[in-house]
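## Example pair
The file below holds two records. Each record gives the amino-acid sequence first, followed by its C-alpha cell line.
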Amino acid sequence: MTDPREVVEQQLAAYNSHDIDAFAATYAEDVLVLRRDGSRLQGRQALRDRYAPQFAEGRCRAEILGRLSEGDWVVDHELAHGVADDPIRVLVAYRVREGLIDRVDFLG
C-alpha cells in the first residue's frame, strides 16, 4: 500500500517543477476537485486542461507550511505563489485511494 503522504509529496514535486504528465499521473482517472470558488473539476483530463496553461507559463509554486495526515487524507497548509499577484494561503485536503489522489478539497 502506498503512503498517502508520499503520493501527495509526488504531486507537489510535479506541481513545483511544472511537469504536467507527472502531476496528472498522481490523480485517479475520475478525480473530483472542489475549488475555492465553489466550482468543480471532474476527471484527470479536466485537471490536466486546467493546469497545463499555468504550468506552461512556469509561474506556479506551492510552499508547504504544515501537513497533517490521517488514514486516506492528507491536509496541507500551503502558500501558493504565482496564481495571484500576492501569495495565497490555502488549506488543501487530498484523499488518496489505491495509490492515487481521488478527491481534492480547497478549504480556504
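Second record, same layout:
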Amino acid sequence: MRLTFALCLLSIFQIRCVEKTTQCKIETSLGAIEVELYPEKAPNTVANFLKYVDAGLYANSSFFRTCTPENEAERDIRIEVIQGGDLPTEKEMDPVAIETTEQTGLLHKDGTLSMARDTPNSATCSFFICIGTQPSLDFGGARNPDGHGFAAFGQVTKGMDVVKKIQGQEEDDQYLIEPIKILNITRID
C-alpha cells in the first residue's frame, strides 16, 4: 500500500516537472527548421517572438547575416550564428526586457534560438541561431560590452543541416549577398 502511494506521488511529481514547450517551424527557401520554445523559462521573450509569429510578420522576411570563423577572424570575441527576422521598422513591436541566461538558465549552445539586440531591453523581431556552443553570448560573456548577453529562448530540434547551409552562403562583411527567404514561421503544436 505504501509503495503504491509512493509510486503515485512520484508519477504526479514527474508530470508536474515536465516543462511545457511550444513548437514552431521556420520554413526557408533552403528547407525547414523546427524549434521548441521555453515559455516557462523565458516567458517574456517567447511571448514577444510568438506575437510576430502569430501575426504572420515573419512571412517573406529573411536570414540576412551569418557569422563564420572566416568573417569573424579579426574580432577578439568570435561567434558562429545565423541571424534572421528582419522586418521593416513600421512592423516592429515594442522592445522586450532582456531575460538573461543568468535568469533563465538557457545557455547559448549548438542550435540555441536567441534574440538579437543592441542595448539591454532593445530586442524586437530579429533573432539568431547558434552554431556550436557560444558562451560569449551568455550573461557575463564578452561579446556585448554591457555583459548582459542575449536572451536565449528556444532550441532547434530538426534542421541544423539547413542552419549550416544558410551559414555557408556567400556573404560580404557578414551580410548575405542573397538573403535566404523565410517563407513563414508557424506554430506546429
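Notes on the second record: The first strand starts at residue 22 and ends at 28. The chain is about 20% helix and 30% strand.
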